[in-house]
Please model this.
Amino acid sequence: MDHRTLSSVDLSKAAWKKSARSGGTGGGCVEVARNLPGVTAVRDSKNPDGPVLLFVPGEWGVFLHSLRSGDLTA
Model:
């Protein structure tokens, strides 16, 4: 899937789930939709009409691995 295909992803059927690590204090809240064909969508739960990041499966796996291993820092 390339960027032209990603730009045409229909997000209207996205089943958004808030991250278990998102606190209820208004901090960094992330929602993920993994039910869309060929992509994982990520958005800020405080701004549901704002931008959405789209990851193809390989990219999503690398991103999660980097988070879990501590390779990404704030």
In short: The chain is about 25% helix and 20% strand.
